[in-house]
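[recover] target loaded
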């Protein structure tokens, strides 16, 4: 990222269910932009109320585990245990009985490999790797630290082995946790043996068998249940073996036994008679031994352990992992969180026991692969560990080696620190007193391309960086500040928007779990998450954990913008832009074009020199312009198809600066490719490409839609930015001459097809099956990301889309590629909402994991993308029209707050299932664009801004759906609006004042203004029935109009006593009679006014007698207003009432 995009979300400041508080985005207060001031008190109240609501919703959704099995933690995909993430560092919960681990990965800890992009090439792959982790456990006793003698053997043999799981791996003393297993795995059978021989006799008094459950959490069913330790004088074939210890009915992941007396021999054997648990009915039983260990000394007995069931909770509201368990036999509780920036993980560890316990924290780099070396050291009294990646292309100037480092410090206890560099493990030991609390602080440094091709360090030293970070964090004050930043970040995240579907708990559980995954794995300014986010626990992530461009990568971000979190989609934009230089090179290389289809390119003389200033992307890319899967699979669509995050970011933010600086040139280059690639020989242009991996076809549906999308966006952007006006006609001409989306007849219905025709057996033929037989909903990628079919497409197009879904059959809803796609396709195709939700719910129930992620056994964070379908059921924009609850279930309540619509509008609304009506709609405009809303109440709407002023609207109809009324109104950037059902206006009668407006509809805000107070009077208050004044004691106030006429009055009070007075005409004199104090008129002054308006009265010379004042010289026929003031010592004592004189 070259700069940071700042979003000032109305939702992050004051979430309002029905009324938006107007805010001004940064930079909006300038010439021509209206500044809107929010009412702070109302905003604070709304914020508190809405945070209470969203925290109640999200707080009730969490992951939960019991027991010591961390199934799915060690995974080539996304782990299934509790997860933390800040977009750069990923934390995976792991452990065993009496042991708690946090596995740490980092988004930019990438191995270069050989940079050739050859799929499945092992360590030569460009791929993300795990860094290592920390493990917390009771401090081992001295005997437990005795050396394992098995690795000193001179020979090892076995009854057999499966694949590469050789017997030597089980006695190397370096067992690895691996999702694919580790150690010795036998052939199929019940009886197996592993023999270990030594050059000299050894004395053994303790033996350990680490089973498959110790290698892979969740695989305890594979633990050996019956086995024996045996010795022999000779060993080898035909030897006689003597039982030393016989074990039946073992269930433990780690069997650890002291012998009653030491046994001495050169030959030891592990003899297995039942390789599985009694409950495991696997028809092909194998023994799986992660490690077989022999010790000279016994393991000392430990203090009685507390009976504590391990319990863990993933609190997604607060982004913490809460753990209760026993460490060193003492019950403890842990609360673990990850700072939003700075890459610091904190575990608060609290003793719940009644005795002190010695604990050990291991800080380690992931061992077991010589291509990725580990090391450890003690730096400034801090335990560190580091791991490095593999550069097998040092001659390539783009190559690198990455190193990441961990540093751990304990705050609140005296520690002893040591390191074993060979193992890449640092050790920190301390005593935790009963009832006391400590914080374990782990910093993650390094990552990225920190060593150049020649091994030169290009950045700060990763170990020094981690040590400096942990030193900065490891104080009570700094930890409190970091925890506050963490809490604030997640509060802001959840406040961005929320939905409430009270009748759909499974959908809510998925939705908020997916939002948590998104907020954890993607952050602006960090590398984009690959297929499995930022959580990597093995060295072999499936598909290299890359950016797979045939839907998987971009699907993660389908719901990001509509969820009002557009900044979280920017890493995807950056990933696509970072490959542009390589994409241009590839498009210009005719050899690369031939890799798409050699025969097609060879038959096109115009393509023999490549395509200049264009884009060609392979199917798999990584960060920094790398290639992970260098194949095209007969398709050229990857750059255009995966332009979707760029296009959507602009649609939802209207950020024209970003459009010009980053997106426009990408669109132009994507179009340039097809401008040359298309066959323009006919009246209608023909696109040749694959309709699926490895096929060849005319006008393949998905690539055709992708081309139309980038063409349309380029033309629109050219107009917005006033660029390339001379090219628009040419681009429009291409768009106009493209073929329509292919359709065909299938199962008696018109459906969208994969392509027009395919090349098979040397000829062009109709597709044998116009829809994929595996249920992959490929033809409807014309909806998302293709953008060629939507909610306001024609009724015929909509029906064809629904037919397409139906002919796939019920299994399509659960097909593993379809989760982020088919539900969104269905919603936008107006597929019945109850059917969409029923299928979504069924899929969620069958595939949701304890950590709330959806897993089909293959795919990863792409499953987040189905949040778009949920959002679109509640709010959708298509062809310039925004509609609330466009596809919702009649009779069911639903509400949403602060969802984002195209055009940079943020909306809130609710749906009442009892009456099947929509509430008023609140809208905040960020970019000041006109808004066209589908009217949910029939004809007409009433729109008011934040001041209550009515906004003019223009009625129309939706594209292709003339029955749907629309209302369009202009907006101002930063202003908020309320849209209500239009009702009949009511009369407002105001005495001694005025109202704005003079008539109003129920729900409108009306402003009252009192007349100016008469001289020697002041405003007293408003009176009137049926309304509630904002402040009845203010001369200018507001009220909300009820559904009836109202009569109101402004009242006033005198500031001095008022005497009653009357006026009469006496011959040529005008008399004002009142109770005068002195007939000589001393202290009295008469004031007259032609208008009677306050402040307009002037002094008039008058005579006085015992009845009052007498005025002469007044013009006959001129009506005047007058009153008399009496003063003593210059102070007004009393005044008369105002009278009217008619001389």
């Amino acid at each position: 990222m070259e700069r940071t995009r700042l979003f000032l979300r109305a939702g992050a400041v004051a979430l309002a269910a029905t009324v938006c508080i107007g805010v001004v985005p940064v930079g909006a207060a300038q010439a021509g932009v209206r500044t809107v001031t929010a009412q702070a008190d109302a905003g604070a109240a709304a914020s508190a109320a809405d945070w209470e609501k969203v925290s109640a919703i999200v707080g009730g959704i969490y992951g939960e585990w019991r027991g010591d099995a961390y199934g799915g933690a060690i995974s080539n995909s996304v782990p299934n245990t509790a997860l933390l993430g800040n977009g750069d560092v990923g934390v995976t919960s792991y452990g065993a009985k009496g042991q708690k681990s946090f596995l740490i990965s980092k988004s930019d800890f990438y191995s270069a490999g050989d940079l050739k992009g050859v799929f499945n090439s092992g360590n030569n792959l460009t791929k993300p790797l795990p860094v290592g982790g920390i493990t917390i456990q009771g401090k081992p006793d001295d005997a437990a630290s005795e050396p394992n003698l098995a690795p000193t053997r001179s020979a090892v043999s076995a009854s057999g082995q499966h694949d590469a799981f050789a017997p030597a791996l089980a006695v190397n003393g370096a067992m690895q946790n691996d999702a694919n297993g580790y150690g010795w795995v036998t052939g199929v059978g019940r009886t197996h043996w592993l023999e270990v021989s030594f050059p000299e006799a050894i004395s053994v008094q303790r033996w350990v068998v680490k089973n498959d459950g110790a290698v892979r959490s969740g695989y305890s069913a594979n633990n050996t249940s019956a086995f024996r330790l045996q010795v022999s004088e000779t060993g080898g074939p035909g030897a006689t073996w003597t039982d030393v210890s016989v074990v039946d009915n073992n269930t433990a992941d780690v069997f650890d036994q002291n012998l009653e007396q030491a046994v001495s021999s050169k030959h030891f054997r592990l003899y297995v008679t039942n390789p599985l648990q009694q409950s495991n009915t696997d028809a092909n039983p194998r023994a799986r031994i992660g490690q077989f260990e022999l010790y000279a000394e016994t393991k000392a007995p430990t203090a009685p352990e507390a009976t504590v069931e391990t319990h863990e909770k993933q609190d997604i509201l607060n982004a913490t992992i809460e753990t209760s368990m026993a460490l060193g036999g003492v019950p403890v509780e842990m609360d673990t969180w990850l700072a939003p920036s700075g890459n610091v993980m904190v575990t608060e560890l609290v003793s719940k026991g009644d005795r002190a316990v010695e604990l050990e924290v291991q800080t380690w780099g992931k061992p077991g692969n010589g291509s990725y070396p580990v090391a450890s050291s003690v730096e400034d009294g801090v335990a560190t560990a580091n791991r490095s990646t593999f550069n097998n292309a040092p001659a390539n100037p783009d190559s690198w080696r990455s190193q990441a480092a961990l540093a751990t410090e304990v705050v609140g206890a005296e520690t002893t620190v040591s390191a074993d560099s060979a193992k890449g493990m640092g050790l920190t030991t301390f005593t935790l007193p009963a009832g006391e609390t400590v914080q374990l602080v782990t910093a993650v440094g390094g990552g990225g391309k920190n060593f150049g091709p020649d091994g030169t360090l290009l950045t700060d030293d990763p170990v020094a960086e981690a040590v400096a970070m942990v030193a900065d964090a490891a104080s009570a004050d700094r930890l409190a500040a970091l925890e506050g930043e963490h809490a604030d970040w997640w509060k802001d995240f959840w406040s961005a928007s929320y939905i409430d579907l009270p009748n759909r708990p499974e959908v809510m559980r998925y939705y908020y779990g997916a939002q948590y995954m998104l907020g954890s794995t993607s952050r602006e300014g960090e590398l984009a998450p690959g297929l499995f986010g930022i959580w990597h626990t093995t060295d072999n992530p499936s598909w290299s954990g890359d950016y797979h461009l045939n839907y998987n990568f971009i699907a993660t971000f389908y719901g990001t913008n509509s969820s009002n979190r557009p900044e979280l989609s920017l890493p995807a934009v950056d990933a696509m832009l970072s490959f542009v230089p390589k994409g241009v090179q590839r498009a210009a290389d005719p050899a690369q074009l031939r890799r798409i289809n050699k025969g097609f390119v060879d038959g096109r003389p115009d393509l023999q020199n490549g395509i200049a200033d264009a884009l060609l992307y392979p199917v798999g890319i990584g960060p920094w312009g790398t290639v992970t899967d260098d194949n095209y699979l007969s398709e050229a669509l990857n750059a255009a198809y995966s332009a979707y995050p760029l296009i959507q970011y602009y649609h939802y933010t209207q950020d024209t600066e970003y459009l010009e600086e980053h997106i426009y040139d990408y669109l132009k280059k994507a179009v340039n490719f097809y401008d040359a690639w298309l066959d323009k020989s006919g009246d209608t242009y023909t696109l040749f490409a694959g309709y699926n991996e490895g096929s060849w076809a005319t006008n393949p549906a998905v690539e055709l839609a992708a081309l139309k999308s980038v063409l349309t966006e380029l033309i629109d952007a050219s107009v917005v930015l006033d660029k390339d006006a001379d090219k628009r006609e040419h681009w429009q001409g291409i768009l106009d001459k493209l073929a329509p989306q292919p359709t065909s007849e299938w199962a008696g219905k018109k459906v969208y097809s994969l392509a027009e025709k395919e090349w098979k057996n040397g000829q062009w033929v109709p597709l044998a099956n116009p829809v994929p037989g595996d249920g992959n909903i490929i033809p409807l990628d014309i909806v998302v990301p293709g953008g060629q079919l939507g909610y306001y497409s024609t009724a015929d197009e909509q029906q064809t889309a629904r037919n397409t879904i139906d002919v796939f059959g019920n299994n399509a809803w659960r097909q593993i590629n379809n989760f982020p796609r088919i539900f969104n396709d269905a919603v936008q195709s107006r597929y019945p909402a109850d059917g969409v939700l029923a299928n979504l719910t069924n899929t969620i129930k069958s595939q949701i994991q304890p950590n709330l992620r959806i897993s089909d056994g293959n795919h990863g964070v792409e499953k987040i993308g189905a949040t778009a379908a949920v959002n679109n059921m509640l709010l959708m924009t298509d062809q310039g029209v925004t509609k609330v609850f466009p596809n919702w279930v009649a009779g069911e309540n639903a509400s949403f707050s602060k969802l984002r619509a195209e055009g940079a509008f943020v909306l809130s609304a609710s749906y009442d299932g009892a009456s099947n009506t929509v509430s008023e709609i609140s809208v905040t405009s960020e970019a000041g664009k006109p808004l066209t809303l589908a009217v949910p109440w029939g004809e007409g709407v009433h729109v008011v801004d934040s001041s209550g002023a009515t906004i003019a609207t223009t009625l129309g109809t939706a594209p292709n759906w003339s029955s749907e009324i629309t209302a369009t109104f202009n907006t101002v950037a930063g202003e908020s609006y309320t849209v209500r059902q239009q009702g009949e206006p009511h009369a407002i009668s105001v005495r001694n004042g005025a109202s704005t407006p003079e008539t109003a509809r129920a729900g409108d805000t009306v402003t009252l203004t009192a007349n100016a107070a008469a001289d020697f009077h002041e405003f007293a208050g408003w009176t009137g029935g049926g309304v509630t004044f904002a402040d009845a004691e203010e001369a200018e106030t507001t009220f909300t109009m009820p559904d009836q006429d109202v009569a109101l009055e402004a009242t006033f009070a005198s500031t001095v006593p008022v005497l009653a007075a009357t006026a009469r005409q006496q011959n040529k004199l005008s008399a004002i009679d009142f109770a005068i104090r002195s007939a000589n008129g001393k202290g009295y002054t008469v004031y007259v006014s032609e208008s009677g308006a306050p402040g307009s009265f002037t002094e008039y010379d008058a005579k006085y007698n015992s009845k009052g004042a007498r005025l002469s010289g007044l013009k006959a026929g001129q009506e005047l207003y007058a009153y008399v003031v009496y003063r003593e010592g210059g102070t007004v004592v009393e005044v008369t009432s105002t009278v009217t004189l008619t001389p």
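[recover] notes: The radius of gyration is 39 Å.
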